[in-house]
Amino acid sequence: MSPRQYSVDTKCLPSSCMDHPYGVQPALGLFAVGSDESRSVRSTGLGSLAVLPDEAVLGILESLPAADLARLSVVSRFLHVFCHHDDLWKGLCLEELEGRWDYQGSWQETYLSCAVPGYRPGRRKPLRVAGVQSDLLYTPWLCASMAIDAAWLEVDNIERRAGLSLADFREQFELPNKPVILTDVVTKWPAMEKWSRQYLEAAFEGSHVLVGDQPISFQAYCKYADTNRDELPLYLFDKTFCSTAPQLADDYSVPELFRDDLFSLLGADRPDWRWLIIGPVKSGSSWHKDPNSTSAWNGVVRGSKKWVLYPPHITPPGVRPSEDGADVASPVSLMEWFTQFYPHKHSVGCAPAECVLRQGEMLFVPRNWWHVALNLEEAVAVTQNYVSPANLPHVLRHLRSRSPALVSGCAAEARSGLYDTFTAALRRQRPELLQAVEAAEAAAQRKAEEQHKLAELFREPAAASGSDRAAATSAAGLGSKVEGRRNGCTAAAVPTAGASSSGAPANAVGFSFGFQL
User: Fold this and answer.
1) pLDDT confidence bin for 123, thresholds 50/70/90
2) Which residue numbers delimit the JmjC domain (predicted)?
3) Pair 421, 429: CB distance under 8 Å
4) What pLDDT does 28 receive?
């Protein structure tokens, strides 16, 4: 399972804290009267396994087939509640049924309807159990049940522009790597008038859409979106929509600001780049940076989305990327992040860029910015990633790693060679751009080497005495010049191997994730 912060903000508790369908309570000491009973239920229900934390218990249950979960659910009150945790059955549906599911109000009912011949969904009612306290089970239910807090929508600090020329866009936003909202692009798309649910159902009739990389019918996804009770609802994120429903490609157009897309030089070999995005309220994209150091645009055709973005050098609170950036650990759901970490959004020393992106608006997402998007209602959007001449140096630097873990959007066997494939295409079709990048990199390398040589001149050997240093510099004919510069504090401005006076890296920063909520 993904890492989870197991604490519940008491301000978010519903009026009755016993509303969980199986009677689960949060383990926060809020119910002191029931704490002894809870320990007894856990000890009796798990026996020698009671020493395990809830995460370990659930991890064991995740490895079991459905039949074993059904058997264990009648062993004890504690196991009855855990074995009915709907996320367990969601995993079984997604792993075993592979898109051949018809949502029936819960994932357990959905699985049983598909796997058990003659099963009639909706006849069983949850059995409420007293004495089970678990944040692991309670937090997902709370996040799925609570409403979106209006306070999350108050800040809207991303500039909105209309009539932006390509030159102004590059100078004011793309080169400074700064987000902007375009208000006069999506409004001109035919999709604004056409893309009702009925129109999309007709467009995808007889074909499938991709939901969690699994193909299912569009009608089945709509049924799920309308009735789901998930903490993090499944998101339709379809990279094949223009081939499965070609008429949709005619309903929108790439804005002039983003048309010079250099990845298009690769033709059919380009990495994944455009997606149709549809999802219900509370669905969305969790914290990430866009692939391969590309920039992106996201245009909303229906609904609205809350966006939060941090610049590349600022890791959002509650997010823990791996050292190489290939993996990201963050709260399981968007609602959990907003509930627990949004109030601490300034704790990383930087105020994020935020907005509510409304129907008919388009957001430019700069390269390498951390971002998250939460659907405030059912939303339909189109997004594309692209490589412009302004962003080309950064994309090439990323691809040059040739790491299959860092390069994405294409077959695993093609990732390590994407840099060579892309530079070959540039050399054939846009050689002036590649030459400019190579010249700039060569100039930067020469400058770095010169600075390194200068730093070497001013580095004082740690073992040398003061008289030895004076003699050495005098012998080199530099004593008076060096001392004069040092007395004028010029030498202090020269970096010494990137270290601060404390011995730590000069750009080192500390950060604690131990928020007390």
Assistant:
1) confident
2) 243-403
3) no
4) 66
DSSP 306: E
Query: Amino acid identity of 266?
Result: L
Q: What is the pLDDT of residues 33-88, one digit of tens each?
A: 456 778 889 999 999 999 999 999 999 999 999 999 999 999 999 999 999 999 99
Note the helical H segments in 316-465. 334-340, 392-399, 412-415, 418-429, 431-458
Least confident of 257-271, 421-435, 454-468: 454-468
Q: Which residues contact 456 (CB under 8 A, 6 or more apart)?
A: none
Contacts 24+ apart (CB under 8 A), 396-400: 396/422, 396/423, 396/437, 397/293, 398/292, 398/293, 399/292
Residues 6+ apart with CB under 8 A from 17: 25, 26, 30, 31
Q: How far is CA 132 from CA 27, 37, 87, 316, 376, in A?
A: 9, 8, 18, 34, 32
CA 172/CA 163 separation, integer angstroms: 13
What is d(CA 507, CA 421) in angstroms, rounded to the nearest whole number? 35
Residue type, 365: V
Three-state SS annotation for 166-227? HHHHHHHHHCCCCCEEECCCHHHCCHHHHCCHHHHHHHCCCCEEEECCEEEEHHHHHHHHHH
Contacts of residues 288-292 at CB distance under 8 Å and 24 or more positions apart, as own/partner, are 288/328, 288/370, 288/371, 288/372, 289/325, 289/368, 289/369, 289/370, 289/371, 290/365, 290/367, 290/368, 290/369, 290/385, 291/385, 291/408, 291/409, 292/385, 292/395, 292/398, 292/399, 292/407, 292/408, 292/409
- Mean pLDDT, range 197-220, rounded to an integer: 95
User: Is the distance from CB of 53 to CB of 27 less than 8 angstroms?
Assistant: no
Is residue 365 within 8 A of residue 371, CB to CB? The reply is yes
3-state secondary structure of 505: strand
DSSP state at residue 417: T
Question: Distance (Å, rounded) from C-alpha 338 to C-alpha 358?
Answer: 19
Query: pLDDT-based confidence at 281, cuts 50/70/90?
Result: very high
